[in-house]
Specification:
Number of strands: 0
Distance between the termini: 49 Å
CATH class: Mainly Alpha
Structural class: mainly alpha
Order of helices and strands: HHHHHHHH
Helix content: over 70%
CATH topology: Serine Threonine Protein Phosphatase 5, Tetratricopeptide repeat
Radius of gyration: 14 Å
Number of helices: 8
Length: about 140
C-alpha cells in the first residue's frame, strides 16, 4: 500500500520531534517535496534539516522554494536568512525584516519561531548564524 504524502510528512515530522538523526530524515522530506512540490511547509522543513546537517547550498535552494510558495511564512524567511548567512549571500536583512514583521503581528507565530530557534540550538549548540538571527529577531 502506498503511503500518502500527508501521512509521510506527518510521520517524518513526528520522527524529527522524537529526536531522530537529521541525516536520516532528509530523504523522507525530499520524497515529500518530490511528491508535493507545492508544499511550502515541506520545503521549509527540508531547508531546516539541511541547515542542521551543515549543508547550506541545498538549504538555500529549499528555503527559496518555500519562500516563493508562501512569502508570508516566517519560518521560511528565517530559514532563507540562515542559509544566506551560511553561504555569505547578500540580502539577509530583507528576510529578517519580513520575519520580524510576521512575528510582531502574530503571537502564535512568534512562539513557533522561538521554539524552532531553541530546537536549533539544542541540536546544533554552536550555530553562529542562528545566534545572529535570534539576536536580530528577539534582540537578546
Amino acid at each position: 500500500m502506498t503511503e500518502t504524502v500527508g501521512t509521510l510528512f506527518e510521520e517524518s515530522l513526528e520522527r524529527y520531534k522524537a529526536g531522530e538523526e537529521v541525516a536520516t530524515l532528509i530523504p523522507a522530506f525530499k520524497e515529500v517535496c518530490d511528491r508535493a512540490p507545492k508544499s511550502s511547509a515541506a520545503w521549509a522543513c527540508l531547508a531546516w534539516l539541511y541547515m542542521l546537517d551543515s549543508k547550506p547550498n541545498p538549504a538555500f535552494k529549499a528555503a527559496q522554494k518555500a519562500v516563493k510558495l508562501n512569502p508570508q511564512d516566517a519560518q521560511s524567511r528565517v530559514n532563507l536568512a540562515l542559509a544566506m548567512l551560511e553561504n555569505n549571500t547578500k540580502g539577509v536583512r530583507e528576510h529578517i525584516d519580513l520575519a520580524m514583521q510576521l512575528i510582531m503581528i502574530d503571537d502564535e507565530v512568534r512562539a513557533e519561531i522561538k521554539q524552532s530557534i531553541a530546537d536549533g540550538f539544542a541540536r546544533k549548540p554552536d550555530w553562529k548564524s542562528l545566534e545572529r538571527v535570534n539576536n536580530w529577531l528577539f534582540e537578546v
